[in-house]
Input
Amino acid sequence: MLAVVKIAGQQFTVKAGDSLYVPHIAGKAGDAVEFSDVLFTSNNGTVNSGANVKAVVKAEIVSDLVKGEKVIAFKMKRRKGFRKKHGHRTQYTQIKVTAIA
Output
């Protein structure tokens, strides 16, 4: 079974057993989480979308805090002596999808 689920404003295509990185979710490693905002399901050729979807994606938190790559935003105006450097590392949570019910 395949599902498209909305997690923290982003859409992910998931199957049972998939492991993926999502924007940071509150919880510790080993906690079970459910995502009820399922947009689309496909099961052996049967497709449901919109209001017809009655599925819930169940997952387990594998790693509660994973930092992404460092992103640097550097601004500079030539001949003015203006330089500004900002950087950040986005925080993610690694989850493993256990079931789509």
